[in-house]
Protein: BLUF domain-containing protein
Organism: Paracoccus contaminans
Amino acid sequence: MSERVANLLYRSETSILPGSAAAEHLLGRARVRNSQLGLTGFLHHEEGFFFQWLEGPAANLAAVQKIIESDPRHEAVTYLHRGTEAVPQFPDWRMGYSQHEDDSLLEWLAREPVAQIKREAYARSILMFLKERSRAQHA
């Protein structure tokens, strides 16, 4: 039996503007680090918030989690989900990225039949949005 993939979903506040040089720099560094650590994931950047799903080996995920928590570009980090999956959700993305101009997470949550009260259901709903954005960018 293969080992399950550790994952987490968090939301953080940021003053970085979507599509800015600072956002591109953050993404570039994250992609290199994720490649070195065997992590995959997807980041959505909207209205002063990051929503990010990260997955991979548990020890490497924990190390990146500490980096994020100490990074001043991420404020008020809130974990919406921590767990494991049988397979990675974003195997082709060292760090996928979308922003409000691609599609609004807040508008998506308003129009889709998703749960927003229970934290786990909310986390699953955000994961669904991130996967939808991932497929749109691969198309």
The longest helix spans residues 119-138. Residues 126 and 132 are 10 Å apart (CA to CA). The chain has a mean pLDDT of 91. The chain has one domain: 5-138.
